[in-house]
Amino acid sequence: MARRVAVVLAGCGVFDGTEIHEASAVLVQLSREGAQAEVYAPNIPQMHVVDHVKGQPTQEQRNVLVESARIARGNIKDLATLDVKELDALIIPGGFGVAKNLSTWATQGKNCSVSREVEGVLRAFHAAHKPIGLCCISPVLAAKIFPGCEVTVGHDTECEQWPYAKTAEAMKELGCRHVNSQVSEVHVDHKNLLVTTSAFMCNAPIHHIHDGVGRMVKEVLRLA
Length: 224
Fold this sequence. Notes:
33% helix, globular, GAL3B protein, Class_I_gatase-like
């Protein structure tokens, strides 16, 4: 039987939701590998809505589930209905929605809280010894919930290629081990069954980002 993988989204758009290219790369690779994607999102308001042309917040109000449905072509479920027993693995793409809608990392950094619903799902997969794939900013969720885990968000030294490298330092302060990696590479924490890759934490050609996300998906499926 095809492996069933939960893909949890956080809206639609890099600045206030899920990074669309990362989500697409995950869904394409799952399809290529013969796996069945089950797309979920929490039925909650977004923290805010960002005009992606101006890069500025607007006065609009949007719903995370409704916006995520754009990426899922309408084939999406409320995260509250997820049953870990029916699934083989979990993948959460990145985008600022992870840090704004699934957690408060965007405003509180290492002192953030993770949405109770999202934390419950992560803990359920972890307790069931089922693999979890995280890319871009989403490894911060694991860093917050699973002290001592191993993850990568790319590099820990800030430069033009790695503009968000301070994220790695904050994760280390939470007690996790950060492993430097290239954008097309993944890191596997075999103890916690976590597979992470940096994706758009790196200023890199989009095909390199797709390569890294694709490897993450393959490794998640291998562990499943």
